[in-house]
């Protein structure tokens, strides 16, 4: 693990580049959260890449903002942005020279008047754009715009203050300082109700948090961020929130295993993460899913395979396991491929193990017709092969639409609702900050097979028996 982290920190600018791309990545997957008008008419050249949704959503809220982002990244268009995400442009043309410049460029992508949406270039005096002193997050072109906006902004100012700290602290994930070292679970997964319980298991929590606060990257961060360093207690809370977002993925997988009654202590298990994208695979480390092994200490071996057309090449690009993996550990790999094609070429030929569970983080198949079409073969495959499946969503509206889509496909919904391992980090929609923030993996749906077959008696009993092993 140490090797892996030190390897990451050697190449500083690799990280600086990726973290500069991050802000837009976070916006794109929530294209539809922003407002109902944001639904894109153009689903992009191939209907599967989600970044075009982000650009569309962004420009419909703040005209010209996507160009500001591309300019800050030294990219000429959306195609170059895509190739940067795919790793083909790293280290070449970003032209960044210092941490200060990097943080400045990130901040520049947030600079527009929250009231009239004007960008600095649209103002007679670009320097007139002033930041809200409370949240250090949103900007105004004038006192009058700020006054008009305050009744709306005051409901979000506090949360936006946290979001502004978190998006800087998040850089520590790229440097390898986060997530901090965590303990093997001393309690059974079903005994934990959420992050409060998880934190109470971390015996060395204060020591680990202090270590993060005193780390070199944390010092570099605040001497270059162009914002005052928050007080230690606030910074510690931010570290916890950013860590919760990182660990939300392995723990949601664990929650999925639990929901479907699997016991990793009794059998080795394979989990496929479908629709994996930059969010899960950009700069991913082979240790990224280790919390899952700590959750089920004494497990018979867990394998997590990330599959999706937007998977980014990196350390975890390696073949899936054909046979059983090492006991007590998680073996992580990634494949840039549509899931139904991966299934045909790898699962059916036994080059990859058949999954016990399939998980999709924020599939967004409700967001546009193009994406739904991209997801259709995968959803039908999961339904027809009766693969236990769990998908997550940012908010209850996404949950509702996705339930409708799955109902139309006659998928048998086992359960749905709020995810106990929802990220604690508030996420603002970059182009419309005065909106209720969303949280990664906030909600989930678990489904198994099709409605008809499960209503034919026998299957139901079998399922219920399987599910009764764990409290839901
Ligand atoms: Zn204004
Ligand atoms: Zn504010």
Query: What is the average per-residue confidence, as pLDDT, rounded to a whole number?
Result: 83
Question: What string, H for helix and E for strand, traces the elements in order?
Answer: HHHHHHHEEHHHHHHHEHHEEHEHEHEEHH
Strand content: 5-15%
Number of separate structural domains: 1
SS summary, helix count? 21
Q: For the report, how would you describe the main beta sheet?
A: 7 strands, mixed
Give unreliable regions as ranges.
1-48, 463-472
Give the end-to-end Cα distance, rounded to a whole number of Å: 33 Å
Q: What is the percent of helical residues?
A: 40-55%
Number of strands: 9
* General shape: globular
Bound molecules: zinc ion
Structural class, from helix and strand content? alpha/beta
Radius of gyration: 22 Å
Strand order of the largest sheet: 5-4-3-6-7-9-8
Protein name: MSS51 mitochondrial translational activator
Keywords: Metal-binding, Zinc, Zinc-finger
Pfam families: MSS51_C (PF20179), zf-MYND (PF01753)
Domain MYND-type: 113-157
